[in-house]
Design a protein that fits this description.
Blueprint lengths: L1 H5 L3 H7 L12 H17 L2 H28 L1 H5 L5 E4 L5 E7 L4 H17 L2 E7 L5 H17 L1 H13 L6 H10 L4 H8 L2 H16 L7 E4 L2 E4 L4 H12 L1
Parallel strand pairs: 2-3
Antiparallel strand pairs: 1-3, 2-4, 4-5
């Protein structure tokens, strides 16, 4: 009788029997061995069940992560969307806000830069906030210091030009190259270089790093789209679809 019972598919057993019947500690050694063998045999005969279980687990973990990320965004909303120093572009009055944490030495950030620019151009109703988050070494930090110093010395329009140029830059980042870049835009290279190591520039980068740590951001690019954290590169089509979903 017992062997006949355990010969039924394991999944059906788990659904049909009360929880107490599945308590291995209440079975005899023989019953426990039979049960384990039948479960093993069922899984070997139906390996897709394992993949289905893994898929369900991954879906639940993703949902839990998304919920946790929404809480992180909500708890840090003021610093994300209105820190008083991050550059704001696109349509400042747009109905959707997209925030990007970037590093100028990040290959995926360079790819995303083109996609974001296309999104802003084709949509026309997105507010973009850029967060300087240099994490890939000294050249990354140097580039961000230059960009922030440019914004502080020469304003938002100059920052936009430098931001685009740094994203398109393929060579090493050093002061000689940065001074040439400043000259190309007609900027005061001496004033910008002097500002790069200032307390004001250091404080902006420090505050953004602290925010990224609170948001558990460890890589670039990372985006915040309204209430949602998007970790990693996204192509234009996916970003536009997410924007449309946010608009409902």
């Amino acid at each position: 009788m017992l062997r006949t019972l355990f010969a039924a598919p394991a999944l059906a057993l788990c659904m049909a029997l009360p929880a107490s019947a599945l308590d291995l500690t209440q079975m005899t050694d023989e019953e426990r061995a039979i049960f384990r063998e039948e479960v093993r045999a069922y899984l070997l005969d139906n390996p897709q069940v394992i993949m289905e279980a893994v898929a369900v687990l991954e879906e639940r973990e993703a949902a839990a992560q998304a919920q946790a990320d929404q809480s992180l965004v909500s708890d840090n909303a003021a610093d994300i969307f209105d820190d008083g120093f991050s550059w704001v572009g696109g349509n400042p009055e747009g109905d959707i806000t997209l925030v990007e944490f970037l590093d100028y030495r990040c290959g995926f950030c360079k790819r995303a830069h083109t996609e974001v620019a296309k999104l802003l151009e084709t949509d026309g109703n997105i507010r973009l906030i850029v967060k300087e988050f240099p994490i890939l070494g000294e050249q990354s930090l140097l580039a961000s210091r230059f960009a922030v110093a440019t914004k502080q010395i020469a304003g938002d329009d100059a920052y936009k030009g430098v931001n685009d140029a740094l994203m398109a830059m393929n060579g090493d980042v050093n002061m000689r190259a940065l001074r040439r870049m400043a000259a190309t835009f007609g900027l005061d290279a001496d004033a910008i270089e002097a500002q790069m190591d200032s307390a004001e520039v250091t404080d902006e980068i420090r505050r953004t790093r602290a925010l990224a740590q609170r948001l558990q951001i460890t890589g670039t690019p990372t985006f915040v789209l309204e209430d949602e954290l998007l970790r990693g590169y996204l192509p234009y089509d996916e970003m536009q679809a997410l924007v449309n979903d946010k608009r409902g």
